[in-house]
């Protein structure tokens, strides 16, 4: 049987019509300057769309393989769910990772730490619409979770010498953290001074959000 030669890959990211867990993935594409289709579905579409996902969850990334003749081959397409799986996949594609197993383990380690803090943030964003409960969650973020994680991440930055979390090379935890810091600053009207209490957090946030392709994305995003 004649083999079909794949000559290019295109990306389609599917999520709800909010920033949410998909925003760190969208930011990865912006940093890498790689185009992608940003498919957003609303709540009424989700029940019928759910069966097309591997685990009944979003976000979902589709890697669309384009054949030599310009056609798309559905059997060759890859579907990936789980936010961290998508991020690590793209990090390897875009060079935000390491080919060295030991360095890659350290990158994963820091990435999962940032992921823990993002989970605390998502509790604030999604788990309650009650103003009183939101106020309690915000207090927990500002007085407990942010200081705890920002201090540890700042020490990590100091250990490796910067300018990024793990040294001279930008890696996917930097993008994840920058997305969080951008959301905190936007949601809390300047971060309530939280970010500026930790100069490393301010430096890392600005390092990502001042990249020209990211500035363009920030000006256009929903």
UniProtKB/TrEMBL annotation:
Gene3D superfamilies recorded for this chain? 1.20.1050.10, Glutaredoxin
**Which top-rank group of organisms is this from?**
Eukaryota
Q: PANTHER family per the record?
A: GLUTATHIONE S-TRANSFERASE
Q: Which Pfam families match?
A: GST_C_3 (PF14497), GST_N (PF02798)
Where does the GST N-terminal domain start and stop, copy by copy?
9-98
Record-given protein name = S-crystallin 4
InterPro entries the record matches: Glutathione-S-Trfase_C-like (IPR010987), Glutathione-S-Trfase_C_sf (IPR036282), Glutathione_S-Trfase (IPR040079), Glutathione_S-Trfase_N (IPR004045), GST_C (IPR004046), GST_superfamily (IPR050213), Thioredoxin-like_sf (IPR036249)
GO MF terms, alphabetically ordered? glutathione transferase activity
Q: Which CDD domains match?
A: GST_N_Sigma_like
**Residues in GST C-terminal domain copies:** 100-222
One GO BP annotation of this record:
glutathione metabolic process
